Write the structure tokens for this entry.
Amino acid sequence: MRTSINHIKEMKQKGEKIAMLTAYDYTTAKIIDQVGIPLILVGDSLGNVVLGYESTIPVTMEDMLHHTKAVVRGSNTALVIGDLPFMTYHISIENALCNSSRLIQEGGAQAVKLEGGVNIADKVRNIVECGIPVMGHIGFTPQSINQLGGFKVQGKTLEAAQKLLDDAMAIKSAGAFAIVLEMVPAPLASFISQSIDIPTIGIGAGTGCDGQVQVVSDILGLFTDFVPKHTRQYAKIANIMSSAITEYYKDVKNGNFPTDIHSFPIEQSVIAELRKQQSDGNN
Ligand code: KIV
């Protein structure tokens, strides 16, 4: 059985911290699921850390479906949330419903995530009314990076803080089961978390959130183009991979790989016969 949205909401009521990680492929999802992390986000951050784009803006529905299917195949118990990519839920309610249902029906996700507050609350309400759980995402919203003018902490002035609170309230009232707060000052994130009765999942939003999310490639030290201030590297996988690949390269060049244990035998007589036929053919 997979984790339900009710279970996630109960965790907030019980004061249990909620962990969420991104995953984009079968193997990583399997490890995260086996560890017992209850929420896996197939984030459109895959645009940066898997596909090598500068932002999440070029990510398409087809990209999201491809990776969501792999993560669903790799997990048994986590609730899998698929990100709706840039401009796949803004144009109309029909557009938002159609793309949300694709992530659920074709991708196999159990919930969708979308970025925005008051401006997309009508879309959230309609998606939820169709029976699809929605996770909100406010604060720094990467799909609006051009509008926001870069990776910037959000909600620093009274006006901006009030807007974030209004956004959180609107998303909650529209029926979302949880909200990501990204790059929000810690005291403001705490205040929002105490003001709404659905879980807040922070990334760069301090300890007062009900849960935390990180990009798996960041915490593993796999993505090294830049290291966000809000991440902690629990490993340096890129270094480990580089050493292993260097060893492999050297072994192939100097003939140390493969050895007999990596090879498959055949009856000597077969090769002897091939040799004989070759030499008969040459004469
Ligand atoms: O796309 C993503 O990975 C996200 C998280 C950073 C919350 O939206």
Summary: The longest strand covers residues 134-139. The domain at 5-235 is CATH 3.20.20.60 (TIM Barrel). The longest helix spans residues 237-253.
